[in-house]
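Sanity check

After download, print the first record. It should look like this:
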Amino acid sequence: MNDLGTLQRWMQEVITHPAGINPERAGEMIRPSATLTSVQRLEIYNRSILMRLLDSMEALFPALLHAVGRELFRDFALGYLHAHPPASFSIDRIADAFPKYLAATRPAFETWPDFVIELAELELAYLHVHEGEGVEGENSLALPRTNILALRLVPAPSLRLFACHYPVHRFHAAVRRGEKPEIPAPARSFIAMSRCDWRVQLFELPLAQYAVLKSLDGRRTLAEVLDVPRPAAVLHAWVAEWIRNRYVVAAVNSLAP
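Expected structure tokens:
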């Protein structure tokens, strides 16, 4: 390889691959030292990179690490990294497919992986919301007093909604507080994640609110997305809460000229 860019790409692929060093062409590309072969020299970097990747995965999923323990977590992470070698310049992007990998490789005869997968999805979303687009610096939406059903509400870019079989948000919050919670019993949970003043927050939702929030798209009116009719006072309370928690960032009155 006389081209520097090609050589750099080969080197990156070799030292970052979780499966280890393939000896093919190693001797051609890397000279041995007085005490180490070409493969052994490359393995030093490969092992260092792999340990850094595993450490990063643990840092990205602290609640999942606590739930399953380091040994099993690293088994999951190694399997994932074998299937999805790093391809991004950012270490924060290495885990983007981790929940999907866990779902694709889950044991068919077990139910506990539901908790593992849902927790991984929540933690990955937490990272993306923390690093993603927010509404800081924007004025809070004003709640109109009339025509509440005519509003077309626009979800905030940081809003994420979850329908889970386990209360993973409570487990996640407890781990982040430094506690050591036990894996909870199954309990249907509806969760909203948003970012307020640079802080990612999790809120438990009633099913009725979750269903409406899930349907908001900025095009249909509140009347059009309601599953069943609701009293105006209830809707005003809901929308006020959504504004306060930054679930929605804009509203257009369809009756306005």
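If your output differs, re-run the checksum step. Summary of this record's structure: The mean pLDDT is 85.
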